[in-house]
Amino acid sequence: MEDHHIKIDLLKLLDDNRLTATQGTSDKKNLLFVVGKSSAVEKLEEFASCYADRINLEIVTVENLSLVASKESLFNAILLGFSEDDNCSSDLSLIPTYTSLLVGGGMLIAKTIVGIEDMLVKRMKLCGFLNVAMSKSIPGIVTGNMPTYKVGTSDKVTLNPETKENVISAWKLDDNNSETISEDDLLEADDLKRPDTSSLRVCATTKKAKACKDCTCGLADELEANRLKDTPKPDTANAKSSCGSCYLGDAFRCASCPYLGMPAFRPGEKVQLSGNLLQDDL
Length: 282
Known about the structure:
Elements: H1 10-16, E1 29-35, H2 39-50, E2 55-61, H3 65-70, E3 75-80, H4 95-99, E4 102-111, H5 117-126, E5 130-134, E6 141-145, H6 161-170, H7 219-230
Parallel strand pairs: 1-2, 1-3, 3-4
Antiparallel strand pairs: 4-6, 5-6
Region (Fe-S binding site B): 243-257
Protein name: Anamorsin homolog
Keywords: 2Fe-2S, 4Fe-4S, Cytoplasm, Iron, Iron-sulfur, Metal-binding, Mitochondrion
């Protein structure tokens, strides 16, 4: 396996991250190599056979990654982009898949193109990886750990009875040292007056004592009647026409005639104007 087909000493990288077992022990880690090309599988299998006493290594291509996921196997670490001319770590859409294949606290080690590590770091953080960092000694290497818990994990929470009593007692009032205020002392004389029922009438739409545009509940008529009741009637006893044609009807009346809209009447006849005709429209 020429130069291990990687630019770094892969075994040293595994040792530094405590992913290899001490020779003679059975505490071997389960590792998954994800490669982009099937041609790299044979070469990595050669590497795995050389260190079979220290690691349990499984190799899979990106296109067969779903087969590994279906086995519900969990790995201590997943390594990406370590085969020759491999850029599978650049496929950021696969990062969520790797999270489901790692044990709690499992590690993702990705070798990517130098200069674009920031993109991989951000994606790993968004997918829930912790301690995500770029290697200071090996350019292009990004590592991150899954949380020590899995999604859906639950644990029983026990409360200390003594602590619970202390919390409850903190909210108790000592009657001997606290002053109380009578509710009646907070009320003023105006607060005790019964409100006028007419002032409580509001429109269901405007929530105010103001009728809406298309009022059908009668509030608009009631408000208009109250307004006319409180409006003094104009004195038209001495009203005189400036043109002398007001009594002939609208066809002979000027634009500002107060009799506009009223039927014709006989000259000298007393005409009573309604209360709203002499009111400014504005």
